[in-house]
Design goal:
single chain; 104 residues; alpha/beta; five-stranded mixed beta sheet; 4 helices; 5 strands; 32% helix; globular
């Protein structure tokens, strides 16, 4: 599985069913780039249990404004379209693993 690209057109459909980790980022930001690398490494361990979606916070403002995203990067974990929990700021792989482990 790969990290899916979230847009205003597909985001709400992607989070509607199952467990989804939405990663709101700014690809130009170093902290966001590092978190994405850590998510890619984590994704190998979570398999199909959790969908991972990256949303460009600078381009997809219609999606961002619907959620508590004040800082990029922000991670929001959804279960069947509802927010379960969130985390703000860059995250090392160990923190990401802890964040999603109850849902794997």
């Amino acid at each position: 599985m790969t990290i899916l690209k979230g847009t205003a057109e597909n985001f709400f459909t992607l989070i509607k069913e199952g467990i989804t980790l939405a990663y709101f980022s700014n690809p130009e930001n170093e902290e966001c780039q590092t978190t994405r690398i850590n998510l890619e490494a984590l994704e190998k361990n979570i398999g199909k249990a959790i969908k991972v979606i990256e949303i460009n916070g600078k381009k997809e403002k219609n999606v961002v404004k619907r959620f508590p995203v004040d800082v990029l990067p922000t991670l929001i974990l959804f279960k069947n379209g509802k927010i379960v929990k969130s985390k703000i700021g860059g995250q090392p792989k160990s923190q990401l693993t802890q964040f999603v482990s109850p849902f794997i």
